[in-house]
Amino acid sequence: MNLESVVAECKENIPRYWYDSYQQKNQTKLLKITQEDKKNVYLITEETIFHPKYGGQPSDKGIVYGESFIVNVGKAMRYRGHIILYGKIVRGTPELGVVFEEIDWPSRYLMMRRHTASHLFDHTLAATLGSNVETMDSWLGEGWYVTFKGALPYEEKLRSAIALENRLICEGSTVSTRLVEGSRLMEQARRSPNLARLPQLDVYRLVKIGEFEEIACSGTHVKNISEIGEVLYVKSESVTGGFKVYLDLV
After folding, report:
1. CA distance 54 to 219
2. Rg (CA), the chain
3. Are 103 and 93 in contact (CB under 8 A)?
4. Predicted model pTM
């Protein structure tokens, strides 16, 4: 399916998860329906709680339903600033108008914990190594990992960074977010890591953990790092241009 035609004549929808990652249900308006075939459909809502596959975070799954239909949403996609929901019709025929969204909460909450833990690990690894670290990529799904630039540190250093992270988690600290205009990002977050990797956007979302530097991120996070639980070091390996650290949660 040509996604350009799916989003044609639609305004960018509002990502509700930017404002409340804990929202599990949402009432919104279904603005456009694009049938792929008799059972599969693309939906665009006015605002959505579904996080797309983006920035290393897997897509949310769940359902969208109205008075006379239900669609099982298998994935959410980001395209040209739009969030597109793709799913299978399990009852009735989708109709424009007021609808309700529900996400798979256990999966979302796991992503929130892993995402926050990944940012915190950036900070504790930098503190352990005594120098700034720069991430290359990450994946929060099965086989959760973070990839950093540079030479692979000794395993002892990586385990020390995880130990520091777990001490901070036990102490707890708030996680806050704010939005900044794209034109003011360098002014507002000049010490934020990984700015060079960011796409050009009109608005950015900054995430701050305790007293650590803010980081630009559009993903979902917990409100306090005490919710993360214990982080486990799984393994590490060298990759082209850097090293990859695999993690898990108890």
Report:
1. 8
2. 19
3. no
4. 0.94
